[in-house]
């Protein structure tokens, strides 16, 4: 069926297993019915548990009694999990758009996808997703290790800082509830990683390779035209080029619409991650720099958490920027398709020169994804976030020294 089909079907199975629903575009073809009451109950229980955890973290920020380090963790995790819940609800609410995206991501340009390009895409997806998943769950492992360490030092077992159980409550009930909340966090991370973050990233990568495929298609038009015209049949070569060029324009318009759909479905995910990464980066650096009682395990935990939010933002922005870059490369491929060597064909054939002018004009305005309709999601924005975060950290750190 092709790499796109394999990737999307695998994701749909994973998303179905962690609760958000059936995102496959053919109802009942590969997965179960997410409208049946057992599955709806399963989804409701998971979302209710995630909300309970988030509310307990928010209460801990406003009403909890914790040492300095745990107070900082409470604020960081509360903000993080609020944004995680926003991202999960965004994906669930856009289920029908995402189903259509899945269908079009498989079908658009499918006929012209080259095995080598698809293997490169598959390798890029694997590398991006693997790096992100490893950093997230190694960071989570550090939270669990620190919870075990604290339980041996007289505190309760808790990987997150919540209003209940209290930090000073060492009863069996508190430890059991803390262990239960750890399981909720693990499931929440699975839902976030599979159905939101890595899935968004994968869609951006696949869309980038769609534009690479389209560029290769336009470049191939010149080879076909040159081969046919050299055989002595210039009229036939011009006719084939015109028909092929029309098909290329159709595919280009399909991809531009697909970019709009991806932005509509995942734009809030990208914008939320931009806010989370920017704020978390500054706050975590300040925790590490200003905390007077901080252990190596806690430094490692915060550093890995910092790496996770920054790496995810980098993967989002760089892949979104790649879509703009690859789309901008189409204008050259379109212009050098061989139109200038073609004779003008009589009606009902379309005027190839006008088609080229229209297509070049359109390609010179490549799609740019934006957060909050203002901030461009590109390489430059990622660098600005890093510089801005460090500058803000340096300013606050200097004033507090």
Tell me what the structure shows.
- The protein is mainly α and 401 residues long.
- It has one domain.
- 77% of the residues lie in helices and 1% in strands.
- The protein has 11 helices and 2 strands.
- It has helices at residues 3-17, 37-63, 68-93, 95-107, 115-152, 172-230, 234-290, 296-328, 330-335, 352-363, 379-400; strands at residues 370-371, 375-376.
- The chain has a two-stranded antiparallel sheet.
- A hairpin with a 3-residue loop joins strand 1 (370-371) and strand 2.
- Helix 2 (37-63) crosses helix 6, helix 5 runs antiparallel to helix 6 and helix 8 runs antiparallel to helix 11.
- The protein is elongated.
- The termini are far apart.
- The model has no long low-confidence stretch (mean pLDDT 88).
SSE topology sketch:
Elements: H1 3-17, H2 37-63, H3 68-93, H4 95-107, H5 115-152, H6 172-230, H7 234-290, H8 296-328, H9 330-335, H10 352-363, E1 370-371, E2 375-376, H11 379-400
Antiparallel strand pairs: 1-2
Helix pairs in contact: 1-6, 2-3, 2-6, 3-6, 3-7, 4-7, 5-6, 5-8, 6-7, 6-8, 7-8, 7-10, 7-11, 8-11
